[in-house]
Design a protein that fits this description.
The structure is a homodimer. Chain A has helices at about 5-20, 30-40, 45-60, 65-85, 100-105, 105-125, 135-150, 155-165, 170-195, 200-230, 230-235, 240-245, 250-255, 255-275, 280-295; strands spanning about 95, 100. The first copy, chain A, is an all-alpha fold and about 300 residues long. Chains A and B meet through helix 2, helix 6, helix 7 and helix 8 of A and helix 2, helix 6, helix 7 and helix 8 of B.
Amino acid sequence: MDVKKELARRAEIVNAALDKLLPDARAYPPVIHEAMRYSVFAGGKRLRPVLVLASAEAVRGSAEAVLPAACAIEILHTYSLIHDDLPAMDDDDLRRGKPTCHKVYGEAVAILAGDALLTTAFAILAGLPQSGRVTPERALQVTAEVAAAAGTNGLIGGQVVDLISSAADIDAQVLQYIHTHKTGALYRAAVRTGAILSGAGAEQLQALTLYAENLGLAFQIVDDILDVAGDERMLGKPVGSDAKNKKATYPALYGMAAAREKARQAGEGALAALQGFGDEAAFLRELVNFVLTREH
Amino acid sequence: MDVKKELARRAEIVNAALDKLLPDARAYPPVIHEAMRYSVFAGGKRLRPVLVLASAEAVRGSAEAVLPAACAIEILHTYSLIHDDLPAMDDDDLRRGKPTCHKVYGEAVAILAGDALLTTAFAILAGLPQSGRVTPERALQVTAEVAAAAGTNGLIGGQVVDLISSAADIDAQVLQYIHTHKTGALYRAAVRTGAILSGAGAEQLQALTLYAENLGLAFQIVDDILDVAGDERMLGKPVGSDAKNKKATYPALYGMAAAREKARQAGEGALAALQGFGDEAAFLRELVNFVLTREH
């Protein structure tokens, strides 16, 4: 399997679905819909939505049936990027090599575009049963799951601790909190969403949750390593920007060699969690390798 | 009926429920939970959640059963106030006579507190069936309803048009768009939520929707009038601040006498919509008078 090709193929499916789910850019008032679409289509590997699809497949569910939920999670992820980039937050001018939302549309519209994407994500999740392929019970369960992952005991909690800790020395415990919440929670929710909507059993769900937690950790450590070692052009943001902002990173805390080893171990943990699965989890396995070896 | 007393009594019920539903202020990371609670408990008449309760009662439903949904709508309303007050938006230092969230906690935490409240609102709505008194179908229906009211064809759309129109001359059509979306949509969703969760029939729902649209309009016109004529101490924000910011208002567009007449007509429209209801809608009727005669 050529994982990059497979990932790109699935990302295209997600992109087409996002295009259909998001309001038309010309819908009144156009500026907000343009800003939403600008950020959603500013690039990105679509790892989170692809995980939703792959997780559904791993429990012999339908990728097509979970596609709107996958899009909701990517839309929610985009909201978090827009707000993270704001001047009051990380104050980033570039994201994936392109001007950030507030640089193009101004701060006010960027704040509202983030708000609107978050709201759209929940509108999509609440509307899942409209397809006739998702029960109201499961739709509600994933809506609650995603809301928890996005809240103050998830994504927002991680962002808050990252924010208030940036000027201070950060120990291993705080670093782990930031990463499991700011990044890990949504990876976990993505994998669980695909499984729950497909009617996964309790054991399968537990195994996939463990997979997601390890994959999310591996992803974040590699992200930290790439920030130190990466190439500015490839990464699309200034190299060393985390160090400049005194952000906590694995290489800063453990050193580069130990950080690489931790990423490798997390990858092994992810693969081990899939032991009870057969070929239907092949793509989930390939994604581990992709995350560990990615260069941007 | 002493409507002010009744409103205050119900507001207390809402406040107690909000206190139970929101995360503890000491929960990690405390700053975000303190900021969320600061803004939710910074005052306010709780008109939206009280409308949810009153609407349930009007269709012989249980106010207690819809109380969490009522709180979700107030929490969502609070998010919109926090973000509206930000420096990049209306740049308000005071709200209900108290320093705004970003003046107390800084811009970054205020943005995140708004995000967290919006997310919490959806978490509560998705969790409604946990009480055993709301079916998954109805919970999903109100989640979709609230998401639509909060999105770019509702609250956010109104805020965007208000924002981009503030320096320009505003005609009657734009003014109506701003008010029906920025304020009206959530009033409408509040009334519909109480009715839907209580199993209202299609005719009842239609009548209550018409009530809500008229009440929301009356509320907004009176708000505009109070901004011009009101007393700074009573209102808790600088009088004439809308005019200073070149915001669109009814008195500015139609003159004070015609604005008062429009508010009165909207109030009559709200009462007329309730003609098919008996005593169970008494409080909804009283609220019309309250909205028309309020002084802050």
